[in-house]
Amino acid sequence: MQIANGIYFRREEIFETLNEGEQYDANTPARDVKIQYKSTGSIYEGQMRGGFREGSGNMTWNDGARYEGQWDKSYACGKGIFYHADGDIYDGNWFNNKCNGFGIYTNKKGARYEGHWKNDAQSGQGKETWPEGSQYVGQYEQGKKQGYGTYSWSDGSVYQGDWVDNRINGVGHYKWKDNRQYYGHWHNNDMHGMGIYIYSDGVTYEGQYKEDKKTGYGVYFWTDGRKYEGWWYNGKQHGLGIYKDPSKAKVKYGLWEHGKRITWFN
Q1: Which pTM was predicted?
Q2: Quick one: which of 194, 147, 206, 151 has its CA closest to 176?
Q3: Range 109-188 classified under CATH 2.20.110.10
């Protein structure tokens, strides 16, 4: 998200009108003015009281950016709309020249954020949508997805769970478009830690993951009742394991390496 503060709302502009010596009196009615600031070339057209922009007014900068809204002591404060030079628009609440409170930011390419802001950054509950059909509904902090949220992709995949620093981190549920599902722990967008993975055909794995692959101890269940209990590495059976087939009343102990059984033990 672009932010308005920094390039715009310059302090030099405030001092220009204050240096004219007009006294501020809150009980004095605001007067309508049109001013072009010598320091920046920007133009203010609106209400002013005691040398301060106060009330309603429009500010236009040399690059075409424009703010239309409320002012308090020369600061954008209250309801206002900021039109960025490149076509992006923020419509919402302001405090001290920054987006604060509830607001809607629309990107010229079609992306849209609707939610809460703190000091020009998305903060709190919000909803972000993209033109291809994806959307995120959840919590933000300092402009990043942080906390609990739901991300829906345009292909039908959905993740519900924890986020840290704009990435899937913590505990969550991911459902792919082909109905595969994973419930468990995540780290930097990877399945990592304990989890349950259910394939679209009903086959299930319950156990440990590392960097998106079965690694550690886990149990693999076939839909016909068979199961493997044992060790995994890099997504494959690796180490000691137990194979059980209830239909044949068999329990076998074996050794696997990289997904291949090496031997059975008596």
Answers
A1: 0.90
A2: 151
A3: yes
